[in-house]
Amino acid sequence: MVTLGVGQPGDESTWTDEVRALGVDIPPGWSARLVAVSMDPRAWVRHAQGEDAVTEPVTRRKYVVEPTAAKGLDVDELVAAIGNKRPKAAPPVALGGWGYVHCIADWQVGKTAYDAGSDQTVHRILDSLDASLARFKREAKRRPIGTVVLASLGDLCEGVASQNGGVLLASDLTVTEQLRVVRRLLLEHVKAFAPLAERIVVPTAPGNHDEPHRVMGMKPRAHDSFAVEASMQVADALDLAGGYDHVEFITPDPDDLTVTIEAAGTIIGCAHGHQWRSPDRVHQWWAKMGHARHRIGQAHLLLSGHFHHLRVVDDSGRTAITAPTVDPGSPWFDQRQGGGPRHGVLTLLTRDGAWTGLEIL
Ligand SMILES: [Mn+2]
């Protein structure tokens, strides 16, 4: 494009603004470059009158508008900077600045599969608890851990609700026996970790297997859950025993399937996972919770179970982690999808909105 201007054009830094001043839209990432200047002998501008008069020529300027090229880098300087890199000192951490998370997910006590059942599940849970305690002690020597989160993520018992109650036919324990085992296991976890940290938090998210009934096909209210009741029973037992004032049990509000807690500066949301139906939909569900301004929508970390396979979805500094499980496995899943999960208990460390050290034990 060609413009007319008084006097000589300015330097490169003025070209784009000069063209924009004429009403030309130059979007971000684009700029004007002056490619030719010529005098127009028939055009000039005169300032003032008489002896003070100053005549300035008018110049004809040809610009091209083009994408702004990325500025070249001196690769030798860049390579030298890499060679000069020295580790930065780690920022100091306040006492108790870390949180340790142990996920309790999909125990499904009572379930049988592949010639295994509750006996094998319970031993696997206790072995994983031992491994988690050993890990905690190793980590606590390296960094101050003030908070332990025992995240109860639902489906702790096989129950009587799934498959129209048919699930009970393949269970090796009655429902009340399942609940007794779940309660004792949960109590064992809290007792084991209680002496090790200043604060123990036990958030509980209800699962679908924890639903106590489905009368006429209808689901119970969201918080009406064997998992919630197991937590409350353990809380009552510790209350009677005394000495456990630093243990907090967090259960859902009425009609809520989720709980959201804070641990060592990290906001952790817990949800079982059956509400988003497919493991691929966790991001979409979490975004909707944010839109609705639900507490869990503000979490740094979303912990869930239900799908029995480890899955990590990380975006914009927020992470949704689906925990694996310790149950005997699922022939139903294997026949449809092929394969099965790596068994184990998910553990990780948190601090100030971030997480690290994900290990399956
Ligand atoms: Mn489930």
Number of continuous helical runs: 7
User: Mind telling me the CATH superfamily name of the largest domain?
Assistant: Metallo-dependent phosphatases
| CATH top level assignment of the largest domain | Alpha Beta
Q: Tell me the β content.
A: 25-35%
Name the strands of the widest sheet in spatial order: 7-6-5-4-13-14
Task: Report the bound ligands by name, code or SMILES.
Answer: manganese (II) ion
Backbone CA Rg: 32 Å
Kindly report the CATH topology of the largest domain. Answer: Purple Acid Phosphatase, chain A, domain 2
How would you describe this protein?
With 361 residues, the protein is α/β, with parallel strands linked by helices. It folds into two domains: 2-67, no CATH class; 98-360, Metallo-dependent phosphatases (Purple Acid Phosphatase, chain A, domain 2). 27% of the residues lie in helices and 28% in strands. The chain has seven helices and 14 strands. Strand 2 and strand 3 form a beta hairpin. Manganese (II) ion is lined by residues 155, 207-209, 272, 274, 306. Residues 155, 207-209, 272, 274, 306 line the site of manganese (II) ion.
What's the short version?
This protein is an alpha/beta fold and 361 residues long. It has helices at residues 12-21, 75-83, 118-142, 175-193, 226-241, 282-291, 331-337, and strands at 2-6, 30-47, 54-67, 98-104, 145-152, 199-203, 247-250, 258-263, 266-271, 301-304, 311-315, 318-322, 346-351, 354-360.
